[in-house]
Write a structure and sequence with these properties.
Layout (H helix, E strand, L loop, with lengths): L7 H32 L28
Length: 67
């Protein structure tokens, strides 16, 4: 048994489509890489701001029952 050979017509029809898919994919990859380079800047670590709010527990009052 010999393997089937692709017809020349199928090859001629698929070659331009594959070239276009390759070109579009490469262009999208290149655009994505160039945008990543622009956005990747060194970021300064955030300095915590002093918080003026203080939390404290309020003691409950004892209830005394008198008869």
């Amino acid at each position: 048994m010999t393997p089937k050979k692709r017809s020349k017509i199928a090859t001629l029809l698929l070659a331009p489509a594959l070239a276009i898919v390759f070109a579009v994919g490469w262009a999208l990859y290149y655009i994505g890489q160039s945008q990543n380079r622009k956005t990747q800047r060194p970021v300064k670590p955030a300095q915590p701001k002093p918080d003026p709010i203080q939390l404290m527990a309020i003691p409950q009052e004892e209830v005394t029952i008198t008869n």
